[in-house]
Write a structure and sequence with these properties.
With 128 residues, the protein is of the alpha+beta class. 48% of the residues lie in helices and 22% in strands. The chain is built from three helices and three strands; from the N terminus they run ααβββα. Strands 1-2-3 form a three-stranded antiparallel sheet, sandwiched between helices. Strand 1 (27-35) and strand 2 (41-51) form a beta hairpin. 3% of the residues are buried.
Length: 128
Amino acid sequence: MHLPDLEARETAVDVHAHIERIVAQGSDLFESWHRTKAGEVWSVEVNTSHWPEAGGRFFAFVRDITERKAAENELHRRNEELERFNRATVGRELDMVELKKRINALSRELGHAAPFQLDFLDDAGDGP
């Protein structure tokens, strides 16, 4: 297979431009998707170098990162889930603080001591 056949993400034009950048820079480390002869696509990390002193050859090390990408995706999914849980929890706590403020204000209007200690808040006057 030729490189444009192997590369599943970049077009032949993109591959050519990428090769030109590697020649100019001397090397590159990047992630991509490669295709097998059977058409299966897999996630790869490519570390490639252009060696003019070796007749202009390219040397490349290609590593299968399918498992790493799956683990990264799972970690991202779980972090999003935790963030949603955190937002919901903080939102409920803020609602509870507002409710306690209302109860304290109503208690004071009725001539009673405020039942909730809210001195930790920036707003003054929510304590007993």
